[in-house]
Design goal:
CATH class of one domain: Alpha Beta
Strand content: 5-15%
Number of helices: 4
Order of helices and strands: EEHHHEEEH
CATH superfamily of one domain: HIT-like
Shape: globular
Radius of gyration: 17 Å
CATH architecture of one domain: 2-Layer Sandwich
Bound molecules: zinc ion
């Protein structure tokens, strides 16, 4: 699996010879990093509004939805979120987990086709 766009000689390796990055360099995110942050949770607010295009919501399921990252580290970065505000993946119901996995698969297929990619990462 491709980890980043670095050339092999630029990679840093752990003692077990696993390449790692010391830092992520994404200078286009500086406006987001320095901007004031909304008080409310954007992942709860966005799906409640009727402005999917402006909020970058690509798909709505029954329990989860797909939203593009407005300030991505990489092109094609989307997130699959439950509508419920929960602190951790362990708090998702079986129904949310099942739909989230289906939406992740659908998203990867759509991004690969739209961007003509062969690799993808899941975080
Ligand atoms: Zn929330």
């Amino acid at each position: 699996m491709k980890i980043c766009g670095c050339k092999p000689e630029q990679d840093i390796y752990t003692p077990k010879n696993i390449p790692v990055m010391e830092r992520i360099f994404a200078p286009w995110r500086i406006r987001y990093v320095l901007a004031p942050k909304p008080k409310d949770c954007v992942f709860c607010t966005a799906p409640k509004e009727n402005r999917d295009r402006e909020n970058l919501i690509l798909y709505r399921g029954k329990t989860c939805y797909v939203i593009m990252n407005r300030n991505p580290y990489n092109p094609g970065h989307v997130m699959v979120n439950p509508y419920r505000h929960i602190p951790s993946i362990e708090d998702m119901t079986e129904e949310e987990m099942s739909e989230a996995m289906k939406l992740i698969k659908l998203s990867i297929e759509a991004i690969r086709e739209a961007m003509n990619l062969t690799d993808s990462t899941l975080e």
